[in-house]
Amino acid sequence: MFDSLPVLPPDSILGLAAACRADPNPNKVDLTLGVYMDETGLCPVFEAVQQAQQALVNEEQTKVYMPPQGDPDYLAGIRALVLGEAGMARLGDRSSAVQTPGGCGAVRLGAEVLFAAAPDATVWVSDPTWPVHIPLMGSVGLHFKTYRYYSPELKGLDFAAMLADLDAASPGDVVLLHGCCHNPSGVDPTQEQWGELADLIAQRGLLPMVDFAYQGMGAGLDEDAAGIRALLERVPEMIIAVSSSKNIGLYRERAGAVLFVGGDARAAEAMASQAISAARRVYSMPPAHGALLAGRVLSSPELRSGWQAELAQICERINGLRGDFRDALTSATGRDFDFIGTEHGMFSFLGLSVEQAQRLREQQSVYILDSSRINVAGLNAHNLSRVVEAVASVL
Ligand SMILES: Cc1ncc(COP(=O)(O)O)c(C=O)c1O
What we know:
It is built from 15 helices and 13 strands.
């Protein structure tokens, strides 16, 4: 049966990370993967998570299945984090939540619910978007159109073009938005633009689905949720896919949640029930460990404040690196790299051609994607000047 089954190539980003690992150059730098790295190049475990883990190991008495909807402490914590006090109060019982295997699981279950409700719906995705969105949601059966978003000429958001494209969407179409820290561009709408966007989405009768994988890594926990909260004030229905991989550092534990906002309590319950049923068809129950840890961190005042302080430091470090990198690149090349300082989160397009990105990898052992997307958090005091020299040399 499998004699002629094709062997598929590895995912392109993972393939570049593997090429970097195989590179014998001791001064190589990997800026490809979307993983936070500290000054030593390590993706660290949050102190608060370590404490929660110790307590969990001491207290855990069973490995019986999780409830299909997930861990109640985790879901309550995530809802409060994303929707905020005011959002929770406004929505009352019009919102529901289901725990998922990471943010990917959340996007997937959100897509399953969309497909169950409106199999012919068109999903509008930003150009560009995170490359996994299309296979993750498309394999459910949904179809896509793109709206203009990042402009290489402006080195930023082409907001007028974005609004013009979404103005042409039909009522009932879905708009996939990145809640903050847009991947791959790092370019987010301003608070004012979020308001305009929310007005347009409400007027055109579109359904926002927000991928929210980096809360707290752009400007702060509440600041990064401002776009979602602007939407919540204006639209009756919404789907939000949350990941705890980056902001609680639980990558391999696969912790995430999909939040649903319905027109009434029955609709919110129906959406959650459809998500649980879709999960049952594929993997049954959500994984326990990461969500139990995050549930403890979010529900214990002491662990929570420790986690928030650690996350704020990470956010500050990324923004500090952005400033240092911008300044060093500007003085090494005489070109304008101001955009690096105004973007949010871990990602940025350096504005190099595919050929320049390849030369950077092959001649300088500095690994970036062909699109010239870099992970700013892969920079540190040790490698920053080397990366700057390498970029200057290929420009
Ligand atoms: C935009 C975006 N959405 C969702 C995810 C999903 O993350 P995970 O499934 O690892 O929680 C990621 C991870 O890189 C991402 O960048």
